[in-house]
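G., before I forget:
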Amino acid sequence: MISLLKRIFLAGIVSELPPPAGDQGREMERLQDEVLRILGRALTIRAVDAGSCNACELEIHALNNPYYNLEGSGIKFVASPRHADMLLVTGPVTKNMENALKIAYDCTPDPKLVVAVGDCGCGCGEVGSLFGPNYATCGAVENVIPVDVRVPGCPPPPLALMQGILAAIKTR
Amino acid sequence: MTTTTLRRFHSEPIDFESQPGVGAPLWRGRAADSEDFLRFAISVHRHDGRLCALWGSDERAAGQGFRVHAVFALDEGWQYLTLDVPADNPAYPDLAGIFPAASRMQRATYDLVGIRHDGEDQRPWLRHGGWPADWFPLRHDAGDPPAQENLPTDYDFVKVGGEGAHEIPVGPIHAGIIEPGHFRFTVVGERVLRLEQRLGYQHKGIECRLAGADFATGAKLVGRVSGDSTCAFAWAYADAIEAACGVEPSARALALRALLLERERVANHLGDLGALGNDAALAFGLSQFFRLKEDWVRLNAQVFGHRFLMDSIVPGGVAMDADAAGLEAIVAQCAAMAREVRELQHVYDEHAGLQDRFLTTGIIDTALARDLSLSGMAARATGMLLDARCHRHDYAPPPPWDKLAVRPASDERGDVAARAAVRFAEVYESLRLIRLLATSLPAGELRVVVQPVPGASGVGVIEGWRGEVIVGVQLGATGRLARCHPHDPSWQAWPALEHAVLRDIVPDFPLINKSFNLSYAGQDI
């Protein structure tokens, strides 16, 4: 127990301030205010992997590490689309996931936000075209459900994901 | 260049020739008929060998029939065996009775190429409802898929009856931020009676995209089969291309590839050790290990330009270099990381609640691991010393491993605790290797030109962090890829997970699952 407490003490707080959204810099409090003003409560996200290679998921995991500390900004991942304000969707949507993704979208209560993540999910860049529609995939997320914000990258780093999530909140 | 030698294995009547180049020791042979093919598989099994991969190809465009490709492993190295099957009756003998791991690969081979095994389980594997059952995407004359409404299909799960038995369906979308797949538990109370997986949700038709691709495009695609193993896949692909085209990368390129592969191994073990703590309700572990992993991948980005090192390994060598300052930062980080991980291991080892969850949970024993052709970290956690990087009495690893004297980590318990212990040991060993590689990088060209050799073929084998990653390539008449099959070790490990959970209760499943952390995308390709 002593060694556990010692480790917590020595590691200290490593969380960094959230990135600026748009042109103007924002601090943690203003971000939380923004979330509260728009939604009146915390933002909940349901991540759906609809066909990625798992690299995008690794970066979404990183959002919850102590550096990015997304939950500290009042944004958290939930287990059911019924509890979610936003779907964070990765992958070129596979034919085998098309139905599941549509069901998850239908289960998410309105008003809902959808953020497409990664070059495959956005259908952009070289990788997006390499993983374009074929017999097994539908291609970009927007080919299957409506998308509000796109976060390209292969995979997009955590900061880009945070900016994308913020940009989506600002559309409402 | 190594000269080609012929040899037989265990007096089976198939002549194998050694694959040239600097990759893992591999021999290539052709079975004259189904009987030879089957007999060789039986012989491999009798000598405690493994079935490493199985796939099919359509050779009708070249005036032949179809072809079955299988990679086996014996103590001396790997055997790549092909069997030609006639175009008018594309069938081959079922290997699942010898190697249970063959079953899903055979079913996938039928879904994609339309060549049938004569075994019992003929259920589709990768095909759900997206394309018709009589249309095969990897046939050269497949054309566009016939229009078909993509409706959810029923799957014939094995039913378990009896009083009090009921089913718990999970997925394809899971509760966490994970890849999709379906698990069907049959339970009595909390005890798991049976787990059956249905995968294929991540199937992207990567092999179809690879057909006709040039080398560079192929490297991008194969490097994205499983994002957490991009270095292992890219290296196995490069090995296969280089063997096919008779090219050897420089000593510097090989050392840099090893450095990247070990950095990938450490990153994944750090993440999984944290997640294992979290699944046993020690959130402290997740925060601490994820902090270390973030430090680790940030240095990747700083030195090599990508957090997960994608597109760094290419046919002919590497597409990056490390300068003196970068290498210095890497060496310094290894020292700091070893210290921090040791402290965290001490916390894990001393934590009674955590150990209570880890010990005797999700057991696989050596016999089962061998039966299922398991490789990699999960196999070493059952006491097997299987590691393509390590010397054994009848096996010398390829460069650069031959000079590094890699020490295999193993643990005989076969439970979650064993897999955690192997991961800790592998982190320390990888840190040692990275320091060694970074302080003794040989000079040499980063990348040599690879001239395609039309019609050539090759197979690459790399010890990724999960296990053995295999890539088989076959070049067409124009020198582009005619067929390329990337094989993830998860093909063999998923069935092992079905067994591991049998003595346990449903709430232990996430912990057991995480201790393997298998790839969905890698097996669904």
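The longest helix of chain A spans residues 95-107. Strands of chain A lie at 43-49, 75-77, 86-90, 93-94, 113-117, 137-139, 149-151.

More on Monday.
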